[in-house]
Automatic annotation (TrEMBL):
UniProt-listed InterPro entries: DUF1294
Domain of life: Bacteria
UniProt name for this protein: Uncharacterized membrane protein YsdA, DUF1294 family
Keywords of this entry: Membrane, Transmembrane, Transmembrane helix
Species of provenance: Flavobacterium urumqiense
Transmembrane segments: 6-25, 37-57, 69-89
Amino acid sequence: MTLLYSFLTLNILAFIITAYDKRLAIVQKKRISEETLLTFAAVGGTIGSALAMYIFRHKTSKKYYLFKFYRIVFIQILIIGCLFYFGILNENHIIKSK
């Protein structure tokens, strides 16, 4: 359950910082670095980052940023697939049955 709460918190934070960076871009203030935004995505905030990107139309026209973002998504999918394939992660890890 702690893993789930950590995942949700990380995605909420990723959503907030991406939305905040969009706000900073609108008012032409100092921005949050792409490295920071991508780091949040890489450590598990991919869903939150993606939602904010598409809701606020932020970074959606930056091809190089999108390339890096989708590369992170691809690597995460590969890692999760390998964890399931080799039995390191299974349904019991995701949903604890009583």
